[in-house]
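During the reporting period the student researcher (J.K.) took over the structure-prediction task from the postdoctoral fellow and processed the backlog of single-chain submissions. One of the processed entries is reproduced below for the supervisory committee.
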Amino acid sequence: MELYQLKTFVAIAREGSLTRAAERVFTSAPAVSAQLKALEDELGVRLFERTPRGMTPTPAGQSLLEEAERTLASALRMRSAAEQLRGAAQGVVRFGTVVDPVSLRLGDVLVKLAERHPQVTLQLRQGLSYETASAVERGELDCAYTLSDVASREGLALHRLAPVDLVVVLPLPMADAHPGLSLEALIEQPWVGTPPTCVLRAHLDRLFAGAGREYRQGRTADSESAVRSMVASGMGAGLMRLDQAEQGERHGELAIWPGWRAHTWLCWIEPAAGARAPAVEVVRQAVFEAWGV
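J.K. obtained the following structure tokens:
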């Protein structure tokens, strides 16, 4: 039995799909299928049932999933302990990010790592902030950039790097058809929202509450780039980071509504408990240096 087989097993259980599991473990769907079959043959039990909705763990698979997760967690702790004994900064750091690596100064971070710690590699995973924070909590990521309004979160060490401005953006036809749009008129327009746990959604709820209304979920984007694309295509108004909105405005994709602005924070997060691996420590140092923290 190999650790990569257990990682594949856990990925299929979490994603419910061979294709998505393959993306998660950075391989192909046929390879994932072959690894699963090899693991089932070795264990002598069927781990999943194929259903119209995807891959569903069997009772045996559900029971063994917990054992697989514990085994992987133990292997990770052993690897970290060995790194500390060596005193060397090397290995892969799983780093979650929001979109747009330029504004996140990842270029500066990568240059510093290449110069000082060439044996450390970043494995980047993009997503909405709530997704990356949850992945850090589950041990699927070592650290992450997130957008957050809160100054702390149970189970995570959170450090604010820089304030981030948020603005309302409009499709160009909407902006042209409604010059001088009031807040009351704005909230009557179609909107592109984000999932309820997203920091952008929290600010959208507050925007509507300021007009005495409740935002009702409609069209939903699962990333900041999707918000920008959907607004640009005319599907509705939305909330974006100011730097992204200004870029979209320069490219003639959308218009910034001048009547509202809010603020959140770009943060670095990592698990609050346990010793920090040397590779994660040097990434942390490079990030904090890039942001002048």
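The committee noted the following: DSSP finds twelve helices and ten strands in the chain.
J.K. will present the remaining backlog at the next meeting.
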